[in-house]
Amino acid sequence: MMSNEIITFSAKIVQHEDINAAYVAFPFDVQKLFGTKGQVKIKVIFDDRVEYRGSLANMGFGHCVGLTQAVRKQLGKSFGDQVDVKLWKDEEERVVVVPDDIKILLDENQKAKELYEKMSYTHRKEYIRWIEEAKKEETRERRKIKMIEMILDGKKGI
After folding, report:
1. Beta-bridge partners for 15
2. Please, which domain of life does this record's source organism belong to (predicted)?
3. What is the pLDDT of residues 85-133, one digit of tens each?
4. 142 φ, ψ to 5°?
5. What's the start-to-end Cα distance of the chain, in Å?
6. What's the predicted TM-score (pTM) here?
7. 82, exposed or middle or buried, with CB in 10 Å at 0-12, 13-18, 19+?
8. What are the beta bridge partners of residue 8?
C-alpha cells in the first residue's frame, strides 16, 4: 500500500464491553494493506470534520479504530451511531510537547522521567493533556504531583 493512500468506509460505533470506550471495526485485511498483523499507526478523519491520530489495533477478532470520548463528543455521536471514516498510515514521528513546568518536575524526579520516556506516545500524551486541562492552578499542581506518583507506581496512563 502507498503510505498516502486514503481508505474510506462507514461503520457503526461499538461500545467496548460495559465501559465508556468505543471503536469501529476496520473492514479490510490489515495484512494485505499494511503488511502486518499487528498494530498500525494511523491518522483518521471522522465524518469529514474530526481529526484523530491513533492506531489500528488487533483486538483478536479483527482490527479496530478507537473513538475516544472526546472524539465522540465532538461528533455528537454515541454507541450504535454510524460514522464515516477516512484513514491512512501515519508516517510522522509522534512527539508530545512537555510544558516547561512539567519538564522541571520530571528533571527533579529522574526515575519518573525514565519511566515516562519509556511510555507509549498515547500514555505520555494522556498525562500531559490531563495536567493541561486543569482549570485552576492548584488543580494543575496537584495533578503534576499525582502524575509523578502514578508513574512511580507503574501506572502507564490516566
Report:
1. 22
2. Bacteria
3. 999 999 888 789 999 999 999 999 999 999 999 998 888 989 999 999 9
4. -60, -40
5. 34
6. 0.66
7. exposed
8. 86
Domains and CATH numbers, the chain: 7-89 (2.40.30.100), 100-153 (no CATH)
For the chain, what is the largest distance between any 2 Cα atoms, rounded to a whole number of angstroms? 51
Q: Give the span between the Cα atoms of 50 and 141, in whole angstroms.
A: 31
Contact (Cβ atoms closer than 8 angstroms) between residue 23 and residue 65: yes
Lookup: cell for 60: 483478536
Residue type, 81: D
How far, in whole angstroms, is CA 140 from its chain's centroid?
Answer: 21
| pLDDT score of 80 | 96
Cα Rg for the chain, rounded, in angstroms?
A: 18
C-alpha cell at 72: 465522540
Q: Is the separation of the CB atoms in 24 and 67 below 8 Å?
A: yes
d(CA 9, CA 53): 17
Which residues lie below 8 Å from residue 145, measured CB to CB, with a gap of 6+?
none
Instruction: Measure CA 58 to chain center.
Output: 15
64 with 24: CB under 8 angstroms?
yes
